[in-house]
Amino acid sequence: MKLKLIIALIFTSCVGLFSAPKGYTGNPILAGTYADPAMVCYDGVYYIYSTSNGSACVWYSKDFKNWRVKNLSWPTSTKLRNQWAPCMRKIGKYFYLFYSLDSQIYVGKSDSPLGPFKNIKGQVNGKEIPFIKNREFFPKIHTIDADVFVDDDNKAYIYWGSGLGFKDGVCAFAELKADVSGFKTTPKEITPKGFFEGSHMLKRNGKYYLMYSDGIYFNDTYCVKYAVSDKPEGPFVYGKNNPILETHFPTRTYGPGHHSTIKIGEKYYIVYHKMEYPRMFEGRSGSRQTCIDELRFDDDGNILKVIPTKTGVELDILKNAKSENQIFPIKIASSKSSGKTPNYYKPEFAFDDSFDTIWEPDTRQKHIWIAGDFGETKDIVAFEPIFAEVRENVIYKIETSNANVENIADVKDWQLYGEFKNGDVKEWPHRIQKPVKARFIRLSVINFNSRAGIWEFKVFAK
Fold it and tell me: Which domains does the chain have, with CATH numbers?
């Protein structure tokens, strides 16, 4: 407990307003709690599939800046528990979505990365048939965390597995049939040193890097390691510089892991999750956020240690992204903020253009609200509130005013801009495009299900 308190104080002292420089992604790159991120790019569109709170979903973006998320009908429709750790791959002309559902692995097939997907194994008596059953082939394996690698010769290989009781991870391997209907080779165990879960294969300059997570996901032991081979099935040699990604207090990167990689241009990047601060010290360790940093190699092909950043990575696509006139209030006020962790849930964090911070109110209040003053009347063209649980059906209203007063507290003539249901849309964040002239704005939360709070309350003007 004393160690946790010391760490919390270290992290809290680092809290402050931070916005990534132009051309950088910033970290985290997504609002909300999305873990085990699997990033891919097809036809110029980036997609992130992840473990989430609630139904299965996918984030997508053309510019790496404006990310949108939509629900996936499958595997949500299975109603199976523990929808974890997806992996998306295009094999042949189809897109295959590998998902861990209730400690078994299922595969969906579609013509599009956005779905709809259909279980390739079908159903029996209304029940979905798994691609890999629980503990199939290996009695000590936890059947989760599938990762599929398509080699230069178009052969596809699947890696999967974890350990039971947070120990003794097992990593399995097999070649897939060309139509992904089953295994072409008999599955075998290839567990490398220091393996627990989250396998991911990366090929570079003829070398096969089996990357994976070790430790326990809800504490600071969680980290990323790797092993190297000349073949996709191994044998694998434990890599140098392990672990290559681990807890980094200066950037509040706690328990990073379960990652994917992506090559953009000539550079490689690691996309991973970290635990949401400060919820990890509040007994809410399941909240994790998606981050990205550069993955570097030395001249001998060894992976260098990744130093987590707040800035994220610099990308040409971001430099060329369409710029909108996002405006920020010069004064901010709110109902009482949550007092669970000092200085971390301030209302300023809803207007700091960062997903590393959040405004979280004290939910014991009858009126939950946050307001801003722009100092002068603005020609507002759109609002985009991003709630703590991005897709949750928060009911809220937005009001505006042009009162001739100095302080937000003195505004009496609030005019209703509109009342909205965040769950009534098909994609999030919900952008409300209705012009209004206003100096003051106020958002009031009328009802929420699981968590009140706002990552960002974005406002756009002419």
Answer: 20-319 (2.115.10.20), 326-461 (2.60.120.260)
